[in-house]
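Suppose a colleague, Dr. K., hands you the sequence of a protein chain of 105 amino acids and asks what its three-dimensional shape might be. Before reaching for any lab equipment, you can write down a predicted structure in token form. Begin with the sequence itself:
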Amino acid sequence: MINEHNLEKANFRLSIENDDIGKVDERRSLMPLSMGKPGERLHIMALANGRNARSKLISLGLHPGDKIELISNDGRGGLVVGRDSIRLALGRGLAQKIMVSVEKQ
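The predicted structure, expressed as tokens, is then:
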């Protein structure tokens, strides 16, 4: 079950850019899709356990183990994700129920 307690246990990944001393990008290795950055390739690790959200995500074709790309996320409204040749628009609430990890390049 994914909950706040489990998220707090997730590891933090800190990266400091060489040309921007003092700016720290603090990201969890397991995070909600809504925290992703546009252009990132992500791996779906888990879906929320709520019956309605989980069944909706599965009916949209999103399953644990899928690889997706975050196309649009302005930090306020909906998100657009791509998988294979399809694009899906998701509300922020639904996107928060999808736990992802960033694919290493």
